[in-house]
Structure prediction request, 92 residues.
Amino acid sequence: VNGRDKYCADEVGYFSNPLNCNEYFYCENWKATVKNCPHGFHFNPHHAVCDDPLTADCPKVCKQPDGHFPNPDDCTQGGMLKVKEMQGGMIK
Prediction:
């Protein structure tokens, strides 16, 4: 829809950045503003707060070994993201 940022799931609210666990978007009138969590924290979309990475439920936190995982921001290659290396539980 014209005039709406793709990261705004609603007119107003806080929404996760699917490509960066430390960032989130604050949307107002369908326009997104990028915000950052403090160092060492990830955005928790369930509670709309910056949280411990282990409880934030960020899709970039590795919960299984290297492989192919859904990429919510890329429809090429069947919407999959090939993960070759994990570092500290994060996609590198």
